[in-house]
Amino acid sequence: MAGNTGTPGATVTGRIMAILGAFDDHHARLALTDLARRAGLPVPTAHRLVGELVRHGALARSGDGYVVGRRLWELGLLAPIESTLRETAAPFLHDIHAATRATVHLAVRDGREALYLERMAGRASVPVVSSVGSTLPLHATGVGKVLLAHAPEDVRRAVLASLARVTPYTITQPGRLNEQLGQIRRVGYATTVEEMSLGACSVATPVHRRGQVVAAIGVVVPTLRRDRGRLAAALQVAAQGISRQLAALPPA
């Protein structure tokens, strides 16, 4: 159970964190009773604390339940690595978007998922399911494959052991995906073909800082038949520029 704080003597801070921790990818919206149960709190206590969180923007009402509020996302963007990445990458992402008119992504790894820090799209862009602040599977997205290829071994093993099918083209064979991850490390970019959304293909490359892959940038296009090499080269140039600027910053 997420954030269970049924232990006597739990502090107010602990109870609030239990409420916030009750939300996850499979429980993005929760009714009050479900929220109280997952947080391990009496309903009256949960009701009082949830009311405070709503007033401060940390939670928001949605239909007959509650969702995480925008204020938490705004605070999350102030974390040093996220804010630095977004600010540093922004001009490079704008250049890629202007040149391709494709949807452009900046993402980091959040556990076993890709967390999208930035998305740029226009009217001509392919419709995608990503949004700023959302998470998507590592194994089914271009930026996710890049991040998975450079993730710690235990993360790769865990992801390979639970490959969920998103579309008919999602790779769910561990051996095949693991082979792709090795190729990504060798060639420096990843691709997907309708593995997250039908009609959407992607190319993505890693962003480095001090020898570590800290993020991935990518584009989503209708097809890779003609422009795979050109898109990969453009992304690699942009990623190198971002990496150089990150390297010039003082250590976090």
UniProtKB/TrEMBL annotation:
SMART domains (alphabetical): HTH_ICLR (SM00346)
Keywords, in A-Z order: DNA-binding, Transcription, Transcription regulation
GO molecular function, one term: DNA-binding transcription factor activity
Domain IclR-ED per the UniProt entry, residue ranges: 71-248
InterPro entries, per database record: GAF-like_dom_sf, HTH_MetabolicPath_Reg, Tscrpt_reg_IclR_C, Tscrpt_reg_IclR_N, WH-like_DNA-bd_sf, WH_DNA-bd_sf
Coiled-coil region(s): none
Domain HTH iclR-type, residue spans: 10-70
Listed transmembrane segments: none
GO biological process entries: negative regulation of DNA-templated transcription
PANTHER family on file: HELIX-TURN-HELIX TRANSCRIPTIONAL REGULATOR, ICLR FAMILY (PTHR30136), HTH-TYPE TRANSCRIPTIONAL REPRESSOR ALLR (PTHR30136:SF24)
Listed name of the protein: Transcriptional regulator, IclR family
Native organism: Pseudofrankia inefficax (strain DSM 45817 / CECT 9037 / DDB 130130 / EuI1c) (Frankia inefficax)
Lineage, opening ranks: Bacteria, Bacillati, Actinomycetota, Actinomycetes, Frankiales
